[in-house]
Amino acid sequence: MLSGKKYFCITLNIQRFFIELAYDGTAYHGWQTQPNAITVQQELDRALTVFFRQPVETLGCGRTDAGVHASKFFAHADLQNVTEEAAANAVGSVNSLLPYPIAIKRIFKVSETAHARFDATARSYEYHFHFHKDPFKLNRSWLYKGKLDIEAMNIAAAQLLNYTDFTSFSKSNTSTATNNCKITEAYFRETDGGLIFTISADRFLRNMVRAIVGTLILIGKKEISLAQLEEIIGSKNRSNAGQSVPACGLYLVNVIYPFVN
Question: What is the rounded average pLDDT of the residues 171-176?
């Protein structure tokens, strides 16, 4: 018989939270934590671990490459004994623990099965060009020197919506279950002194957007025709497509979930 001792059982209340953030990727080796490199995920996990005083491992909505930016990015994390109100109120404090190029916008409770990567139904990217030297666009836009036929590029971009297999624009050493993507919009628009390419799809392959932009530029330079673009897509061979444009101009700008406003 036990006597003179009291035993307590601590119940752990684990809830899943989504973290919406933005970052300038210039100084980081992409989103995903990896050895011998500083990444956005590494910095985020560190700040959340320090503030909530528990080990925190996030999982992101995707992987951005080194130098790529995000104006809207989502990750999820499971937190122990943290209320919905406490998580929402933690934004300012966690931001003070993060490097200045990374900023949390909000932290909010979701269902325990919600998944930042697999529950996303659409994603949108922008690629930014500028045509004249501008110190305020350094590392945030690509300085392109040359003339482009933007109308021809838009005609070619529209043709992308007719295809689903984008193997020709996928990084060759990447293994995925499928290279099929459903593109819902792809177009260029002129800005004051520059150009922005917007593309949306249900999913993207690694390096896909930068490879597509590099190939559409060949259309704009009149180095290949629309028929040749179609041949490139049909070949399913990355070496036939154009070079990938620099990472500095690429932004993840939107991620859509059925349960997130």
Answer: 67
What single DSSP character describes residue 247? G
Say which amino acid occupies 161. L
Q: How far apart are CA 253 and CA 259, in angstroms?
A: 18
Place of tokens 């059925």: 258
CA neighbor of 129 nearest in space, from 207, 196, 215: 196
Closest CA to 201 of 131, 89, 127, 124: 124
The tokens describing 63, both together, are 């992987």
- What phi, psi does 71 have (nearest 5°)? -95, -15
* Percent of residues, the chain, with pLDDT higher than 90: 91
Write out pLDDT tens, residues 91-134.
999 999 999 999 999 999 999 999 999 999 999 999 999 999 99
According to the model, what pLDDT value does residue 243 have? 96
**Distance between CA atoms of residues 10 and 12, nearest Å:** 6
The token duo for 235 is 């070949």
Dist. CA 155–CA 151, nearest whole Å: 6
Is the pTM for the entire model greater than 0.90?
Answer: yes
**H or E segment and range at residue 41:** helix 40-52
Beta strands in 69-180 (DSSP E): 69-80, 102-110, 122-130, 142-143
- What amino acid positions are annotated as catalytic residues? 65
- How far, CA to CA in Å, does 162 sit from each of 39, 63, 130, 189? 36, 26, 29, 21
Helix, coil or strand: residue 102: strand
